[in-house]
Amino acid sequence: MGDILETINMWTADIESDFVLNASCKGFPLTAEPSRVSELGQRGWHLLDDALAYPVAVLRRPALTHNLAWMQDFVQRKGVALAPHGKTTMSPELFRLQLEAGAWGLTFANVHQLRVGLAAGAQRAIIANQLVSNADLDGLDALLQQHPQARVWFLVDSLAQLDALADWGARRGHARCWDVLLELGIAGYRTGCRTHEQALALAQAIAASPIASLGGVECYEGGLGRCDSAHDIEAVSALVRSVQALVQQIDAQGLWGGDEVLLSAGGSAVFDLVIPMLKTQVKSRPVQGVLRSGCYVTHDHWNYARYLKLVEEREGLSSSLQPALEIWAKVQSVPEPGLAILSAGRRDLSFDQCMPMPVRWAARGESGEGAMQATPESWKVKALSDQHAHMVFDASGVWPQVGDRVALGISHPCTTFDKWRWMAVIEDDGRISGAISTHF
After folding, report:
1. So what CATH class is 85-293?
2. What is the pLDDT, as a whole number, of residue 174?
3. 106, 229, 287, 385: which could form a disulfide with 117 (CB 3.0–4.6 Å)?
4. C-alpha to C-alpha distance for 400 and 162, rounded to whole angstroms
């Protein structure tokens, strides 16, 4: 085990170090001197002075700051905690900002992601997934030895998985007792027990097992959302009631393993509707509700934007989150009337939910105040190639010209972040004030 810990310490040192940006990082200029992430803002660069190579991913700092504060205020008003899903950004710099803003902990999908979060300073983490393989259990065991103050819960949804945990312990000769959350699932969807009978039998088995301690109950409501408030309220409320009934059954049988019960849910679309579940009370001990929404940190320009409009209506809000993430590309060709080819494609930004959306532009050679303008309504991306965006426009209106810069808004930040090793942080006037790194 000593050799394993030495290796993990080496990996962690790499994460904790001030990430160096250089020509190996897409978007960083080939001829520029390398820069540490923390020092990029001192370069005096501006997004529109063409110092960076296109395409370039940027985060708007004012929107980012707003989103961090807005979500923390939301959970505080609701009386629950926030453990944002780290898979969205996999950025130690953003993890630290989320924790500094008041996040209770962080959420991850696997042990690899957890390693980055613990190195960034998280003391509590939920792996919102089932662990089964030897490699994952060995890795988590080693991480917990390296971070003895950290508390990590992962999901269990079957007796077969519990047997796999017991088998790992027997083969490793290890006495570790894992902190777990029982997952209640949705028929026809992802993981999780399908019936109360299955869930209660599993809770009883966990309580009787020396290999796991039942810390609470988890569910994921995101698959129920249809961006229709009437439907979403009914569907999510049914799931909430189901979880609440299960929690009361587990409490009545005295099956909890700790002195506090964790109740966790919350994707990034209908997170407001699971608050009643997170505030479920039990007789035997205190409850900590934990919301796991992750995409709020940058928000987006379409999918989550339309869901958040409904959240605003349900909550009586005039505004909420702001889109912070953009990919800037060059117009590299206007080969025919009504068609412009931009220098960003599938390798650079998300397209799994919808095409990217031109949101602002700046003419070639223009910089300074007023250079950024809203894009004409007719500018639309109709298709993507690996390295190109095919943008159509009304040929009777404003034509994009070769060398113009176009900002593409995105839908679903998760599948944009994983295409970049770093992103520039900019002010609203385009001044580059910092950067973040990613570790996928």
Report:
1. alpha beta
2. 81
3. 106
4. 59
